[in-house]
Amino acid sequence: MAKNKIWLSLREKLEIPMVSNFFSMVFLQGINYLMPLISYPYLIWTLGIDRWGIVNFAWAFIQYFIIFTDFGFNLSGTKYIAQHRDQPDKINLFLNSAFIGRIGLGVLSFSILAILIFSFRHFREEALFYLLYFGIIVGNVMFPLWFFQGMERMKYIAVFNLIAKSLSFLPMFIFIKAPEHYIYVPVCYSIGYIIAGLFSIYFIYFKIRMKWFIPSFRSIVFALKDSSTYFLSRASVSLFTYTNTFILGLVCGNVVTGYYAIAERLFQAYDGLIQPFTQVLFPHMSRTQDVGFFKKVFKRVVIINVVLFVIVLLLSKWIVMIYSSGAANEQSILGFRILMFAGLFSIPSVMIGYPYLAALGHPKYANWTVIFSSLFHISVIIILFMINQISITHIAILVVCTHLTMFSLRAYGVRKFSRL
């Protein structure tokens, strides 16, 4: 009898949208960890540091276009749909307007990519490699993550991402057997993303029964304008997330980029632990503005973060060497240890930013903190470049300083605006 009560209680909790969404995002994050955990060590061992470096350089390069085509919709679209969930006509109009707007941004992105490839020797020498990566952008444009977040149907995000990750990573073990097979990496990524995008479109228009129509030009402009503030924030994030790998590739070459990518990928995996909380909390906070609930979650996340930081730092050498199949050097290990200190600030900073300040009516301040921090980051990178001090260690220290800057600004914002 007691077991039945426990089972019924568990079922009731799982039927609560936010609880169900949280476990869906945990499942998704598990996929995001498991696939790279298996495939990246294999790629490093098979391709070698040099080719691993160019793969990561191209990945960082293509992220600029992903950020551009996302255009902040993962934040603005989530908020808009969460606030209009009882008005399907408005949701349908915004969905189609955003789709058309993002398709236009995708066409513009391809034009810019083509110009860059054929204008600069660094890109022209690997023109096909970079063009094959564009399939990721096509799939990303087709997949409206923000729609499912706003509707609080995160389980579908988990399913579609499982499809994308499986079709991206699993073929790598079949087709990539030597360093010269690095050309297949963007092919595998693109196929996975495009198929996941097609599945999401089918589900939205044939299962949820959204209607496809061409919205007015004014509606498209409204969707883009509404998202533009968030785009500046997301674009700023990319400046100190992907520019590090990009600048190391341009200045120091593929080998140094490969060693840094090992440290950075591991740090990003750790930093991504926060995503299930932020992706679930943001639509919930946008609707309810439940400060008390957020406060409880925030305290627990910060405590867990500190405990995990200590554990990971103590095991850092073994983590890096196992992850890299023994290919890492002291630069990778030191870089990872330094980057881990950024996690002490980045995780609470993210929690304060969009699940909290933006949802409580201060998105401009949350966006401004990112923009200011990015300008600081880029300014220091320019100085390091001018004095010929671009290195793994200096870039890692700069990442810590940038995250500390943004955390400090957002902590001030909490004190100034919020009810915490």
Overall geometry comes to globular
Count the beta strands.
0
Mean pLDDT: 82
User: Helical content, roughly?
Assistant: over 70%
Helix/strand-derived category reads mainly alpha
The poorly predicted ranges are 1-15
Secondary-structure element order, N to C:
HHHHHHHHHHHHHHHHHHHH
Compute the CA-based radius of gyration: 21 Å
Largest sheet: none
**Spatial gap, N to C terminus:** 42 Å
Explain how this protein is built.
The chain has about 425 residues and is mainly alpha-helical. About 85% of the residues lie in helices and about 0% in strands. The chain contains 20 helices and no strands. It has helices spanning about 1-15, 15-70, 75-85, 90-120, 120-125, 125-130, 135-140, 145-150, 155-170, 170-175, 185-205, 215-240, 245-250, 255-270, 275-290, 290-315, 315-325, 330-360, 365-385, 390-415. It is globular and about 55 Å long. The two termini are about 40 Å apart.
